[in-house]
Amino acid sequence: MHSLAGQVFLLQLAVVLLLVAATLVALVVQAQRDVMADARHRTLTVAQTFANSPGVVAALKSANPTAAVQPHVEAVRKATGVDAVIVYGLNGVTLAHSDPRQVGRRVIGPYAAAATGQPFTSTFKGSLGLSVVSAVPVRSPDGSVIGVVSVPVTVERVQHRVDRQLPVLLAGAAAALVLAAGGSALVSRRLRRQTHGLGATEMTRMYEHHDAVLHAVREGVLIIDGDGRLLLANDEARRLLALPADAERRQITDLGLEEDLAGLLAADRPATDEVYLAADRLLAVSKRLTAPHGPAGSVVTLRDTTELLAVSGLAERARQRLQSLYDAGLRIGTTLDVKRTAEELAEVAVTRFADIATVDLLDPVLRGEEISGAPAEITELRRSAVAGLDAGHPLHSVRELIRLVPAHPVFLAMAEGRSILVGDLSACDAWRSQQPADARWILDHGIHSMLVVPLRARGVVLGVVTYWRARGSPSFEEEDVSFAEELAARAAVCIDNARRYTREHTMAVALQHSLLPRALPEQSALDVAYRYLPAQAGVGGDWFDVIPLSGTRVALVVGDVVGHGLHAAATMGRLRTAVHNFAVLDMPVEELLGRLDELVAQIDSEEITPAEYEQGLVTGATCQYAVYDPTSGRLDIATAGHPGPALVRPDGTVDFPRLSVSPPLGLAAGLPVEAAQLTVPEGSRLVLYTDGLIEDRTRDLDAGLEALRDALTGPDRTPEATCAAVMEAMLSDRPWDDIALLVARTRRLGPDQVAEWEVPRDPAAVGPVRTACARRLTEWGLEQVVFTAELILSELITNAVRYGAEPITVRLLRTQPAGSPDAGALIFEVADGSSTSPRLRRAKVTDEGGRGLFLVARFAERWGTRYTTTGKVIWAEQSLHHAAAPEAEGLGELLLDQWDDTAM
Q: 409, 464, 706, 728: most buried by Cβ count inside 10 Å?
């Protein structure tokens, strides 16, 4: 209904409705008028006919007028369909009436006019509704009035006949309305097809602007029908083709056009920017067929390209240079390496712009350092890239240091921050004065023109790029400067990015190396080898540790902080330090990871903002912590979101023990960490690793585990050989994540290295145990440490008997690393059922005790307490390196040092 056709349809339909309604109203009004006229005519006719009927006069003059007239009144009423026929006397008395009951009554009404001889007709509102009455005088032969005949009739009685005609009128009106609406719809449909459904406003705008748009465009427009006749041509087309005034409706071939152009216009094929000659003009012709979207034909546009010929060469050169800049953007900066980026700049420059290109950078840029000093103070550059020359070229070689002199084009370009164009090198004295011999050699090789552009990024001069042209190429011109500067600007940003990355990468690597273990500690429970490989994208947060614990036990740690960069490396250092501190306290493996989880959660709460927390920017870390006891072969291990270990048994089979894996660190929400206990045969290899070893972009977790199984399966190998084999089999060309690998071969302390005694809670039991300990040390060939061992053991057992609880157990361990028969350590362990730990203090003068632990701390290399499920273990470790018994005098002086001489 928004289209013009719809609006016309609505208008036509409204007109038809109005006409039909007006006609119907007129017919109804006319029918009402006809009803009233019919009523008047009927009553008057009946009254006159009855009054003038033969015998009426005689009947009225008879002795009994009612008897003579009454029978005829009812007959006339029924025959004429009126309401009544009434005969009055001149005195107003009813002589005859259709209703016999009214006979003899005096009637008050308008009969007096009829009595005077004047018939009349009137309309009145009675009890039966609107009625019409006519009265006619009855005259005697002599002309005198002897009576009155009155005939009334109600309009409703006459209306019934009209009402029977009303359905016919309505049916006719409806038929006329339907016929008119159908005709309007057909007309509207045809109009809609011809106007394409456009609205009145759109058609008005289209026709108002048709001529203006068609004739104002600077392109010629032709519309040609399917028979090759020209239907329309705008002013520009008439001008370009010199068309005659009567060109429209004529055949294209009859308009005097060039034969090839006329052939294209008459042909049934499209064209795009095909060039044709029309008189002295060169036209670019485009043609589109209108079918199947319209009637058969075509629309042709013409553009005058004659003036473009003069600048086509410049445009082509500009296009080529834009393409070169686009290609340079793809080829320069593919890596974050300063030297490689400089080489890419030189290679791109010699492709289409210069014959030779050299890139000279400052030494701090190559090292990734910040640049200090003003550009005018720079006197040295390092040749970083050369392209376009073969061996034996006369220019400075790569990595050669170039010392600049004032007024040299390179020095001026850097000092003034602008490009320096030297069209003729032979005429440039400043360039020749730096190294005259080399300058002559360069000129002899045909190099004749130079363009120096400084490499500036973020307001800092990084170096220069020099473009050279040799024999066979034109000299550089001013129009070449803009392209050279744009190329240098893009490359300078890439070089500066690479410099910044080099600096940050160097700092991150230095930080990471300072946080990772420098060397493995000495211990006798495991033979350990490791590999650590940072990702190509930068340093990460993977770490490993081997931590000696009391009782010859060793803790193995492998962890991974999510992400790369300084933040990951710093977080890794904090977690590694925390693991060391917790491990020194001899915590159970599950408790240690629980404390580490709390630490990571605290780090998140202190360092992560609420917005970062909602975005998931929290510290993500995984960790695996295992403690191996060589006296029993037991391995306690707990995992927080980390891949499980691999166990290579002595027969070469590989197993991945099923462990309970807790959530990653910081996400456990206070839930306990589950631990597992394994018994590891002697000679087994325990392999701990981070996920970067088994996962990458081309390999999923299951495939990585199978590959690791294949790499570990086989004959027995040393941990070092195992690391080499695993890295060779699993390492990809460009690892996307850090890799930490820890391989430990297990050892067991033999029965000849362990001595254990049960001690009753009796002070008298200390002596026998001390004697047994001395006997065992003698059997081990350690007579030189018997005195010190008895001293340490006596103090530990005495403390357990006095302050501890049963059961009390004494264990003596002798460790001896492979390849060092004279090295090792002696470990004393006294376990009891009490959880009270002793502490070292300086005894007062009046104290009877408090000096035993001081002696233990003095003569033992290390000592401490660890808690067990049944109590505690107090241990002391004595090194066997150059061990000797203390002199008695020295021991006395040591004891005397516990008292203050002034207090004595």
A: 464
Identify the pLDDT of residue 900. 45
> How is the chain split among helix, strand and coil, in percent rounded to 5?
45, 25, 30
The single-letter code of the amino acid at 138 is: V
Q: Which DSSP category does 111 fall into? A: T
Please tell me the distance from the alpha carbon of residue 63 to that of residue 70, in angstroms, as a whole number. 14
* 630: β partners: none
CB 69 within 8 A of CB 96: yes
- Look up residue 372 and give its two tokens: 């200090």
pLDDT, tens digit (0-9, with 9 covering 90-100), for 728-784 = 888 876 667 788 999 999 999 888 889 888 888 888 888 888 888 888 888 888 888
Identify the CATH assignment for 217-305 out of 3.30.450.20, 3.40.1190.10, 3.20.20.105, 3.20.20.70: 3.30.450.20
**How large is the greatest C-alpha to C-alpha distance in the chain, in angstroms?**
196
> Residue 898: what pLDDT?
47
User: Coil, helix or strand for 199?
Assistant: coil
Residues, the chain: 904
Q: Find tokens 């152009």 and name the residue.
A: 261
Query: Strand ranges (DSSP E) for 111-184?
Result: 120-126, 129-139, 145-154
pLDDT of residue 790 exceeding 60, the answer is yes
Task: Look at domain 4-162 and name its CATH class.
Answer: alpha beta
Angle at 87 between CA 84 and CA 92, to 5 degrees: 120
* Domain ranges within the chain, ordered by starting residue: 4-162, 217-305, 314-506, 516-746, 754-898
pLDDT digits (tens, 9 = 90+) for 262-296: 888 888 888 888 888 887 778 888 988 887 777 78
Query: Average pLDDT over the chain, rounded to whole?
Result: 80
CA–CA dist 623, 559 (Å, integer):
4
Q: What is the DSSP letter of 686?
A: E
Predicted confidence (pLDDT) per residue in 225-262, tens digit: 888 888 888 888 888 888 888 888 888 888 888 888 88
Q: What pLDDT score does 720 carry?
A: 93
What angle in degrees, to the nearest 10, is found between the helix axes of 852-859 and 888-896? Answer: 130
Check: CB of residue 23 under 8 Å from CB of residue 215. Answer: no
Distances (CA, A) of 106 to 88, 90, 91, 92, 93: 9, 10, 8, 5, 4
**Quick one: average pLDDT of 705-713?**
91
Measured between alpha carbons, how far apart are the two ends of the chain, in Å?
122
Mode of pairing for the β-strands spanning 634-640 and 661-662 = parallel
In terms of CATH architecture, what is 314-506? 2-Layer Sandwich (3.30)
Burial string for 593-619 (b: 16+ CB within 10 Å, else e) reads bbbbbebbbebbeeebeeeeeeeeebb
Same fold, 217-305 and 516-746: no
Contact 711, 726 (CB under 8 A): yes
Give the amino acid at 303.
R
Token digits for 812? 């003596």
CA distance 25 to 30: 8
Do 633 and 680 form a contact (C-beta atoms < 8 A)? Answer: yes
Residue 63 CB contacts under 8 Å (≥ 6 apart), including other chains: none
Residue ranges with strand state E in 376-500: 380-387, 401-403, 420-422, 449-457, 460-469
Determine the topology of domain 516-746 in CATH: Phosphatase 2c; domain 1 (3.60.40)
pLDDT winner (highest mean) among 442-446, 449-453, 881-885, 900-904: 449-453
pTM over 0.70: no
Q: What is the mean predicted confidence (pLDDT) over 536-542?
A: 72
Sequence-distant (≥ 6) Cβ neighbours of residue 884 within 8 angstroms: 784, 785
Sheet of 145-154, strand order: 94-96, 86-88, 145-154, 129-139, 120-126
Look at the block and give the residue holding tokens 């350092």: 369
Q: Which fold has domain 754-898?
A: Heat Shock Protein 90 (3.30.565)
Please state which of the ranges 22-31, 136-145, 221-230, 614-623 shows the lowest mean pLDDT. Answer: 614-623
